[in-house]
Every structure is written in C-alpha cells, then in structure tokens.
Amino acid sequence: MVPDGFEVYRAFCKRPPQLVLHWHDSRTEAQGWLVINSLKNGASGGGTRMRKGATLEEAIFLAKTMEIKFMVSGPLIGGAKSVIDFDPQAPEKKDVLKRWFESTYPYLKHCYGTGGDLGVDEMKDVILITQGLFGIEHPLEGMVRGHVRTDEEGYRRIFENLHSGVKMEVSLEGLPSGGFTVADMVTGYGLSRALHHFFELRGESLQGKKALVEGFGTVGGSAAYYLDLLGMKIVGILSMGTKPGQWRCAIDPRGLDVRDLLLQREGKNLPPSFQRDRYPEEFWRTEAEVFVPAAASLTVTMEVLSVLKEAGVEVIAPGANNPFADTVLGATAVQEEADRHFAVIPDFIANSGMARTFAYLMKEDAIVDPQKIYQDVDEMMGTVMEALLKGSREDRHLLNRAYSMLLHGELEGR
Predict the structure, then answer these.
(1) Number of domains forming the structure of the chain
(2) Within 10 Å of residue 324's Cβ, how many Cβ atoms?
(3) Is residue 205 part of a domain?
(4) pTM for this one?
(5) pLDDT tens-digit profile of 277-313?
(6) For residue 323, what are the domain limits?
(7) Confidence of residue 177 (pLDDT cuts 50, 70, 90)
C-alpha cells in the first residue's frame, strides 16, 4: 500500500530550511530572502524572483518546490530560491538586483546556482548582471562547483555548455528560423512529452484531444505549440492584458492556429486583437479534456476546479510551479480536491524540462545540441511517467502517489 503522499509532503514542508538569509537594500525599501532548503551533495539551486509584496514564506515554499523538482529531474542537489520584495517595473530594478547579487556572491560562487523567475529575466537580468560580478562565470557556477568534482578546465567546459546550450536556436515546424531558443521552448516541450507518455501508457493518443492553456508566455506558448504539433486541438488560450483588469482570450472549439498566434504574440501575451475588458468566464467553460495552467502560481482555486469538471476536463498538466491555490506552506486542500477528480501530472514532473536541461549540460560528456537535449528530456519524462503509473489501476490520486514515491526516493528520472 502506498503511504499517504500528502501527509509525507506536509511533513517535508514543516521542516525548517537549512539556511535563510534576510537582506535589506541600502538605497531603497527593497528586501529579499535567500532560502536554501538544503545543501544536498554540496549544492543547491533555484531562480531569482522579484515582486512587490513577496514574503519569506513564499521563498521557503519555492525552495522546497525546487528541491522536489531536482529529485525528479536531477541534478541530485538541494532546492533554494531568491525572492525580492520590490516592484519589477520600478526604474531602480537593475540596481537593486546588482546589490542583491553582490550580497549573495559567496553563495553564487561556491554552492548556489540561480536563474530567472517571475519579474526577473534570465538573459537580460541574471546573466547580464552576474557576469560582471567579481568573476562569476555563470549564474549556476556555485551549483556546479559545489556539486561537480572536476578541475578548472572541466568547470570551464561545463560553464560553456550551460551558456551555449540554452541559447541555441530551435528549429520549429511552420515558424521562421531565428526566433526561438532552447530556453524559450524546452519547458513546454517537456510538458508535451509528459502528456504524450501519460496517454501512451494508458493506451491512448493525444491526437484530436482538446486542451485549454492558461498563459501564453515562455511556458504556455511553447506547450501550446508542441501539443498542437502532436495533434491536439488547443481550443482556448487565456493571458493577462497590458493593464490590471484586462485580459486576452482566444477560443475556437475547432482548434486555434497556434503558430499564427505565436507569430503575432505581443511580448508574452496573445495579440492585442484578443483584448477583453471583462474577465472571460467562457474560457473556463470551453469543452476540453486537458487543462494546462501555465500563467502563474496559485491560480487554480476550488471554483476553477468545479468549472473545469463541468467543461469535461480529465487531466491537469501544470506548466506553472505550485498552480493550486493552497496559499499557506504545507496546505493541501486544493491539491487534494484536484487529485480526487482529475489525473494530475505533478508540476514537479510536467514543467521540469529546463531543470533537466541544466542537469544534462552539467555532464562533462554532454553533447551540446538541441536534439540531444530534447532527447534527454523526453527519456526522463518517459522514465518518470512509467514509474508513476506502474501498478496504478486508476488515473486519479496520481499527485498523492507521486509525493509518496518521490519523498521515499522511488521516482527519479535518472
């Protein structure tokens, strides 16, 4: 009998993190937290987030989420997170980030690796600022040096792999070349492969199935593209507008032209022609079998779950971390409700494509090629989904099962 996974998860959340660094900016009201849940095998990793109103509890929650994700995707390190309470639209953003990275430099150099997250761009913010900081060779340098045992030549080779690997262009069928990189597309690709393996192991196909996608940025846009390529009909896409209270929504029960929408995309939003001044309730009521929440954390409420059931949704595959609106660390009420009524592919599996890419590129013998990266992500997804579904007689309660297996060391993608 599989132990209660939610009970195991709650106990994991209650354990205090190994290290919490609380930072106050010297020139603005900004404050931040570096939370290292554990230095497993000498290292930890997790992105840098900036938003007004961010909290320590949020940072702890996200650090623990990263630890769980690394258990699946590798590398075998601890989870961490940088969270800064500051408006990312403020003109002082770059200077605040620079002072933050200066303050956390010892960790970035020796045991902690970071990247982009909400409000912080991987290329324009993290890489650009850290590369000019005291000889940091890559934002993941501390993670690499803490975890990998090699000489300086080996480290330099890994840093070069990390730099070049995520920036490589990806060839996309039906779209012009030069517009998309591994970093832009690999998370959505991984999510599409998780869904592919789920249905294949159930003796079904994605062909002709309908999906609703919340979010049309890096994750939502790439997931929609690859699911469309596999024969799914993307019948609804919802994204934020440019102003508070505005939305952009595209709906077509016959299937949207995802490639055309990507070509017209404005930043990380649907084209302006899809602007709505009222909340588009009809998106949630559009008939579909699969729902992909890929916009932000905590968007899937009890009310959303109820409407999705009425729309015929059977499978939820999150592109966003912590999509369920359990706002207190360790709370599981919304997750448990979702797990009772849907086949939930856990977020720490479905959206782990980028984490897996970093794990692959950290190998000294990695072949830096988009096809090899994609192949590795696909193989990991297949291994994990087969382990998760093995011996299971039903599609429900997969999240409970995943927590139990994962936190007992039985659900690794390596």
Answers:
(1) 2
(2) 29
(3) yes
(4) 0.93
(5) 888 999 999 999 999 999 988 999 999 999 999 999 9
(6) 182-407
(7) confident
Query: Which DSSP letter does residue 124 get?
Result: I
Alpha carbon distance 376, 371 (integer Å)? 9
CA distances to 272, 322, 337 from 325, rounded to whole Å, are: 29, 8, 11
Residues 143 and 264 in one domain: no
Pairing state between β 247-251 and 233-240: antiparallel
Q: What SS3 state is found at 260?
A: helix
Q: State how far the Cα of 6 lies from the Cα of 376, in Å rounded to an integer.
A: 30
Residues 188 and 132 in one domain: no
Provide mean pLDDT across the span 104-128.
92
**Cβ neighbours for 238, distance < 8 A, ≥ 6 positions apart:** 212, 213, 214, 215, 216, 247, 248, 249, 280, 283, 295
* pLDDT tens, position by position, 178-198: 789 999 999 999 999 999 999
Residue range 347-383, pLDDT digits in tens = 999 999 999 999 999 998 899 999 999 999 999 999 9
What angle do the packed helices 370-389 and 353-361 form, to 10 degrees? 120
CA-nearest of 69, 240, 36, 300 to 143 is 36
Task: Mark residue 174 as left, alpha or beta (left: phi above 0; alpha: psi -120 to 50; beta: remaining).
Answer: left
Helix H or strand E encompassing 33 = strand 31-36
Q: Is 363 helix (H, G, I), strand (E, B) or coil?
A: coil
3-state secondary structure of 395: coil
Say if strands 343-344 and 78-85 run parallel, antiparallel, or are unpaired: unpaired
Give per-residue pLDDT as tens, 36-51: 999 999 999 999 999 9
Q: Which long-range contacts (CB under 8 A, 24 or more apart) does 128-134 make?
A: 129/94, 129/97, 129/98, 129/101, 130/101, 133/98, 133/101, 133/102, 133/105, 133/108, 134/102, 134/105, 134/109
Find out whether the peptide bond into 75 is cis, omega within 30 degrees of 0. Answer: yes
* Buried residues in 214-230 as b, exposed as e (16+ CB within 10 A): bbbbbbbbbbbbbbbbb
Three-state DSSP at 214 gives strand
User: Are 312 and 371 in the same domain?
Assistant: yes
